[in-house]
Amino acid sequence: MPLPSLKQQFAELIALPSVSCTQASLDLPNRPLIERLASWLSDLGFACEIQDLAPGKANLLASYGSGPGGLVLAGHSDTVPFDAALWRSDPLTLREADDRWYGLGSCDMKGFFPLIIEAVKPLLERPFRQPLLILATCDEESSMSGARALAAAGRPLGRAAVIGEPTGLKPIRLHKGVMMERIDIHGQSGHSSDPSLGRSALEAMHAAIGELLSLRGQWQKEFNNPLFNVPQPTLNLGCIHGGDNPNRICGQCALEFDLRPLPGMDPEQLRAAIRGKLQPLAEQRGVRIDYGPLFPGVPPFEQAADSELVRLAERLTGQAAEAVAFGTEAPYLQQLGCETIVLGPGDIACAHQPDEYLDLSRIEPCVELLRGLIGHYCLDAQPIP
Fold this sequence. Notes:
With 385 residues, this protein is an alpha/beta fold. The chain has helices at residues 6-15, 31-43, 112-120, 145-153, 201-222, 267-285, 308-317, 330-335, 363-380; strands spanning 47-54, 57-64, 71-76, 95-97, 100-102, 132-137, 160-163, 172-175, 179-186, 234-242, 252-260, 288-293, 301-302, 322-324, 339-342, 357-359. It comes from Geopseudomonas sagittaria. This is Acetylornithine deacetylase.
């Protein structure tokens, strides 16, 4: 059976819902989409391995050619949740208008996979000196469990990896980490007329917030990277909940915050510094403080400016590699020995938004770029001077 056209492939992938979300009521399987991709790639001669991680959740690793090294073209198969009422058309139906393809995942980032297939088809009759691997992961938008599982398995993938997240076809070699953390303080409730009857969790949280802001100031003095639009690490106090009535001493209080470390900052050392401030505060206030991550977090990422992949991507795109604030799966692929960059055709400004789209003008440049990368790593398989 002949492969569907590029537009048909876009439409079929968008029509297969694959939302990943921390709220179980919104979370959906991605396996039907993985199976569709595997079918297309198998028809092209790829060896396809589906890695089941949880019920309905899977990664796909498809390879063409064999041997050490080679190129990994990677992306996540899931999308964020959506509110159909805010879209001008059905989010799961591809719509062409204004020289754009609209649909959930067109930009971030199901649309990257049909572009890979379009790029590789005319190259398959040539001998591959090193393999091409196409990786589709699950749950990047929630837990990054797909990429984490690959990193934990420790199986080498390739010499270089390109993740097709939306970067406007600009190579990205750095991004900040993502840490989302929670502090729970358990005090003792009591009548507000006599403070000795309780131990206020809210007042203890006030002190804890002071310690967090002090650490933020210390880190922002110590760490700075001018390649980022916001050159310092950030710490945002996101939400707080505690107490139930003005005339009751607050017995419980919870704070959730977001910390974005720069490359070179170790998340576990940051957590140790926070614990070092909270423990004496708990003893002083006579409360219990529980602290930990809401999810394991994404490490900061940096690929060396003089690495082969960065220099090649800069040459092929004509643009210097940059830094972005959002997190990706790049550090996990880097842990597997791949030189890694983030480089894709979409625009981050329309990701996670109603009426997400991919500009049609980006399609041909992206396909040519991918052919250049495949040619260098899989057909020529020679380092650039």
